[in-house]
Structure formats: C-alpha cells, structure tokens
C-alpha cells in the first residue's frame, strides 16, 4: 500500500511543499514517513526588489553611522581643552564601572566564581 499526501502551503516568500510518502513494509505492518521540503523559485521581479531594498537599507545604515561619528567628533571639537579632557575621563570611568559591574555579576555564577576566584 502506498499513500502520497502533498499539502501545499501558500504564503509570503517562497512556497514550501511537504510530500509525505507512507510505505508498508512486509508482514510486520510497520511503516515509515519520509518528509521532503521543496522550495520553489520566486519571480525575478520579487528577488530584484528584495535585493534593491536590502542595498538601500545597508546604505542608510552606513550613512547613519557616518553621521553619528561626525557628530560625536564635532561635539568634542567645539569644547575647550579642559572640558574635552573631562569628557574623555568620564568615558574611561564609565567603561571601568561597566567592566566592574559585569565582572561582579558574572562572579555570582558558579562558573564565574571559579574564573574570578570569589
């Protein structure tokens, strides 16, 4: 006895078909199920639009990073030397506090306690 069931799922993106083949084996009555996924190609216009959108998002993200970097640089440049040094020291202190807090929270765990000898 051979039974073949093929439900087709339609949705956004590519279609996926699951074919289920059931085979009966000998006299034991045991059967096994084999599932196979089949992906269908989407239209060229859809893949082209997706690639165009991804490249546009990548470009926007790159421009945003550039803008933020220039803005941070400008905000440092317009300060007096004393203020600039204080800002740099604040960043260093904040980094040190973050590392200490992270180390303390990790050391609470069993593995972290071994690592940091708590």
Explain how this protein is built:
The protein is α+β, with helices and mostly antiparallel strands and 118 residues long. It is 58% helix and 20% strand. Strands 1, 2, 3 and 4 form a four-stranded antiparallel beta sheet that branches. A hairpin with a 6-residue loop joins strand 2 (8-9) and strand 3. The radius of gyration is 30 Å and the shape is flat.
Q: What is the distance, rounded to the nearest whole angstrom, between the alpha carbons of the first and last residues?
A: 67 Å
Radius of gyration: 30 Å
| Helix-strand pattern | EEEEHHH
Give start-end ranges of low-pLDDT stretches. none
Please state the structural category. Answer: alpha+beta
Describe the global form.
flat
């Amino acid at each position: 006895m051979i039974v073949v069931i093929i439900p087709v799922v339609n949705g956004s993106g590519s279609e996926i078909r699951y074919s289920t083949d059931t085979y009966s084996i000998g006299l034991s009555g045991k059967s096994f199920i084999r599932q196979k996924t089949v992906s269908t190609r989407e239209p060229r216009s859809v893949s082209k639009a997706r690639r165009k959108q991804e490249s546009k998002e990548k470009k926007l993200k790159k421009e945003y990073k550039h803008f933020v970097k220039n803005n941070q640089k400008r905000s440092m440049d317009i300060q007096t030397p004393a203020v600039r040094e204080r800002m740099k020291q604040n960043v260093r202190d904040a980094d040190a506090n973050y590392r200490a807090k992270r180390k303390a929270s990790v050391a609470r765990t069993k593995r972290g306690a071994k690592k940091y000898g708590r």
